[in-house]
Amino acid sequence: MFSIIIPSYNRNLEVNSLLVSLEQQTAKNFDVIVVDDCSPNPLKIDRTFSFEVKLIRNEQNVGPAQSRNNGAKMATGEWLLFLDDDDRFDERKCQIIAETIEQNPTLNFIYHPAKCEMVNEKFSYITQPIKDNEISLEKILLANKIGGMPMIAIKKTFFWQLGGLSTELKSLEDYDFVLKAVSSADFRPKYVDLPLSICQFHTQRSSVSTNTVNTEKAIEIIGRQYVKTEQQAKNFAINSLYMLSYPHAMNLSRKAGYYYFKIFGLSHNVKHLMIAIISTISPQLAINLKRYI
Question: DSSP of 84-118, one letter per residue?
Answer without folding.
Answer: -TT-EE-TTHHHHHHHHHHH-TT--EEE--EEEEE
